């Protein structure tokens, strides 16, 4: 338990209906009562009940007390709900500092929750991912980890490893590091099983990254094939300007859309064609440049028509690793023999748009939200380290290694898995993780 009492605004700074100020530490209640006067006159406040009163003679406010260990941080916590005014909140915070609390560092509330054993490190990281999630699916994936979905899985493997390590250690005293066949067979089986389970968790890594970072998808195609209409249709609002005069979208325009959980920024480019006017040639160069900076390209043509030479040329200049989704638009006007590599849509009527979103998700390597059980690169690094150590165990078994040698790698996997939840993770890493948190969390 820490000695000092910290305090910070828990809601975003600025004007708002209400603001929440959080106080945590052994003196939380003392600090609160120096500043807050309940209308009932009854101090101490009843636990976990909102009480109306006056704060610092400046505002009516509600206060709530959550006593240790039944609070977010595991310490005594008090929260004040007051009106969300910038100057008002600043003044109340100053009063609280004068009353004995100090300014909380970014992430300090969550760090205290971790240090007091309320949550483990993967859950703390999930808190940050949940706050930062920009789509509902990203938030769901983060919540699954926050609920302990990742720790449960890694801790169960770690528990099995503990038993295995203990039984192998008992064999060390035997002459010549002898390991009975049935023990080796069981270890080989278990190693395969642990590896498989860890791989399954890691399969969600790409999904987690996409949920978090999103994608840049560039819409390219000749003028008038319906790129702006497609963008409008994808985002469901009329953001891009649509006209039937060729070459009107001269600059790029972007809008972020939730595509099965991935925040995809669609970028509408100027029509790709060998233009005549100067503005259009610049637009084309920009389109090519945008395509080269894209994570995924939507190459659009009219149904029954071909990609124009300029687009074919642009696509040829692309890095082959960038996925290209071929789109045939205006299926309401014309038809053609359907090709499996093409998605058929009508940007005007909306047909095929869901299929297009699905194709973008698949080609980007999206992972269904229920399979995403990691939120953070650090967690993946620990899992990968555990997998590498298990691979060495497997090789050791094949090579007929003795128990002492196998134990080194089994312990390596065991400690890498422990670090997922923060066990044995050095203090500076812990500090770095929490310093990335927002203030007041
Ligand atoms: P861009 O130059 O590629 O951005 O094309 P626009 O989105 O400006 O569309 C050019 C014209 O095609 C406009 O008149 C649109 O209304 C029309 N258009 C776009 N998509 C469709 C479609 O699916 N069906 C039909 N019938 N017209 C479309």
Question: Strands, helices and their partners?
Answer:
Blueprint: E1 6-9, E2 16-24, H1 28-35, E3 36-38, E4 51-55, E5 59-66, E6 77-84, H2 86-98, E7 102-103, H3 108-115, H4 121-132, H5 136-146, H6 149-169, H7 181-202, H8 205-213, E8 215-221, H9 227-235, E9 253-259, E10 262-268, H10 278-292, E11 296-302, H11 309-316, E12 324-329, E13 342-344, H12 353-363, H13 377-398, H14 403-420, H15 427-435
Parallel strand pairs: 1-7, 8-10, 8-11, 11-12, 12-13
Antiparallel strand pairs: 1-2, 2-6, 3-4, 4-5, 5-6, 9-10
Overview of the structural elements:
The chain has helices spanning 28-35, 86-98, 108-115, 121-132, 136-146, 149-169, 181-202, 205-213, 227-235, 278-292, 309-316, 353-363, 377-398, 403-420, 427-435, and strands at 6-9, 16-24, 36-38, 51-55, 59-66, 77-84, 102-103, 215-221, 253-259, 262-268, 296-302, 324-329, 342-344. It has a seven-stranded mixed β-sheet with strand order 3-4-5-6-2-1-7. A six-stranded mixed β-sheet has the order 9-10-8-11-12-13, with helices on both faces. The protein starts with 5 loop residues before the first strand and ends in a 6-residue tail after the last helix. It is built from 15 helices and 13 strands. Helices cover 44% and strands 17% of the residues. The protein has three domains: 6-118, Gyrase A, domain 2 (2-Layer Sandwich); 124-204 and 374-421, Four Helix Bundle (Hemerythrin (Met), subunit A); 214-366, P-loop containing nucleotide triphosphate hydrolases (Rossmann fold), CATH 3.40.50.300.
């Amino acid at each position: 338990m820490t000695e000092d009492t910290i305090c910070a605004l828990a809601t975003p700074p600025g004007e708002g209906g209400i603001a929440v100020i959080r106080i945590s530490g052994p003196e939380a209640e003392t600090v609160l009562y120096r500043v807050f006067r309940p209308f009932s006159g009854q101090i101490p406040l009843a636990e976990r009940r909102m009480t109306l009163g006056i704060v610092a003679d400046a505002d009516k406010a509600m206060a709530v007390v959550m006593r240790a260990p039944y609070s977010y941080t595991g310490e005594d916590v008090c929260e004040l709900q007051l009106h969300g005014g910038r100057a008002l909140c600043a003044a109340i915070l100053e009063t609280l500092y004068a009353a004995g609390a100090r300014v909380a560092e970014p992430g300090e509330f969550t760090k205290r929750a971790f240090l007091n054993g309320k949550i483990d490190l993967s859950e703390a990281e999930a808190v940050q991912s949940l706050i930062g999630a920009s789509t509902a699916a990203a938030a769901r994936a983060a919540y699954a980890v926050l609920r302990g979905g990742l720790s449960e899985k890694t801790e169960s493997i770690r528990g099995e490893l503990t038993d295995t390590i203990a039984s192998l250690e008992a064999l060390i005293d035997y002459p010549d590091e002898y390991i009975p066949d049935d023990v080796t067979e069981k270890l080989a089986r278990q190693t395969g099983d642990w590896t498989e389970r860890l791989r399954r968790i890691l399969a969600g890594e790409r999904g987690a990254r996409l949920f978090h970072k999103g994608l840049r998808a560039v819409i390219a195609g000749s003028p008038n094939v319906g790129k702006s209409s497609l963008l409008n249709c994808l985002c469901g609002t009329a953001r891009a300007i649509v006209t039937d005069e060729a070459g009107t979208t001269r600059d790029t325009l972007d809008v972020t859309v939730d595509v099965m959980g991935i925040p995809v920024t669609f970028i509408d480019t100027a029509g790709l064609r060998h233009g005549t006017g100067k503005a259009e040639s610049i637009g084309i160069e920009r389109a090519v440049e945008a395509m080269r900076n894209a994570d995924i390209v939507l190459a659009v043509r009219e149904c029954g028509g071909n990609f124009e030479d300029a687009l074919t040329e642009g696509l040829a200049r692309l890095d082959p690793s960038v996925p290209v989704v071929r789109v045939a638009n205006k299926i309401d006007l014309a038809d053609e023999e359907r090709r499996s590599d093409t998605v058929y849509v009508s940007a005007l009527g909306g047909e095929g748009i869901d299929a297009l979103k699905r194709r973008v998700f698949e080609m980007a390597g999206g992972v269904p939200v229920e399979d995403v059980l990691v939120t953070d690169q650090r967690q993946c690094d620990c899992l990968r380290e555990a997998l590498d150590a298990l691979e060495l165990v497997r090789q050791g078994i094949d090579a007929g290694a003795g128990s002492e040698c196998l134990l080194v790698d089994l312990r390596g996997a065991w400690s890498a898995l422990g670090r997922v939840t923060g066990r044995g993770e050095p203090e500076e890493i812990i500090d770095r993780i929490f310093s990335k948190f927002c203030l007041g969390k």
